[in-house]
Amino acid sequence: MTAAPEPDRTRADLAKDPRAVSGMFDGVARGYDRTNTVLSIGNDRLWRVATTRAVGPRAGERVLDLAAGTGASSVSLARSGADVVAADFSPGMIAEGRRRHSGVPNLEFVEADATDLPFADDEFDAVTMSFGLRNVNEPRRALAELWRVTKPGGRIVVCEFSHPPSPAFAGLYRFYNDRVLPIVARAVSSNADAYDYLNESIRDWPDQTTLARWMREAGWAQVEYRNLSFGIVALHRGVKPAGRLNG
């Protein structure tokens, strides 16, 4: 019997094979944050601030930051005094995060699969996921898993690329992604092919109202969203209804 071929770990595709996606992120971990800042023209920092404010972490709370990457978003959350778990399925990202942020006492790094989280039911006061749900091969299952590990009355914030509602701006955004971003990525990234996947995954991702519907179907209540940067990114929020226990 011939063994199945290893996936190309330089980039993923829209099949979103977990090994391929994880391997792709392993390869860009060291320069990931710097590349994102360049490609987003600094907007990634504004999106991080907006996400942290939406989560509203407080001292004494336990917060899950899923798809945390190297932990930049997790550090922002941990400044509140909350105990933050930075989870990601890329061992390379987790290793880089531990290397950078080992001195943060209330921050823990854990390798985790978004569709099968290694946490107990009703464990977290708040859960959040920034720019990671799009990379999961079963995003609705991930939303259900996030619901499972959140305490009744707890909250979710999902920050993800979306679709600008203005046709004119959407055209400019597509031009940037299709023509400008690949050139810049080749100049600043160690794996420019990974950013071809970025474009593909953004184009394939559903719009704001569809993601809101997925969240409601997973059990989240009070679901709402607001656009950031003219809809390049959307910030979705929800609450796990009080009294809704798992099982």
Task: Explain this structure.
The chain contains nine helices and seven strands; from the N terminus they run αααβαβαββαβαααββ. It has 247 residues and is an alpha/beta fold. Helix 5 (91-101) links the parallel strand 2 and strand 3 (107-111). Helix 3 (43-55) crosses helix 4 (72-78). The longest helix has 22 residues, at 167-188. The model is unreliable at 1-9 (pLDDT under 50).
Distance between the termini: 42 Å
Helix-strand sequence: HHHEHEHEEHEHHHEE
SS element count, helices: 9
Whole-number average pLDDT?
Answer: 86
Secondary structural class: alpha/beta
Classify the helix fraction into a percent range: 40-55%
Low-confidence stretches: 1-9
| Morphology | globular
- Major pleated sheet: 7 strands, mixed
Please compute the radius of gyration using only Cα atoms. Answer: 17 Å
Strand order of the largest sheet: 3-2-1-4-5-7-6
Q: What fraction of residues sit in β-strands?
A: 15-25%
Secondary structure tally: strands: 7
Topology (elements, then pairings):
Blueprint: H1 18-28, H2 32-39, H3 43-55, E1 62-66, H4 72-78, E2 83-88, H5 91-101, E3 107-111, E4 124-130, H6 139-149, E5 150-161, H7 167-188, H8 192-204, H9 208-217, E6 221-228, E7 233-239
Parallel strand pairs: 1-2, 1-4, 2-3, 4-5
Antiparallel strand pairs: 5-7, 6-7
Helix pairs in contact: 3-4, 7-8
Compose a concise summary of this entry.
With 247 residues, the chain is α/β, with parallel strands linked by helices.
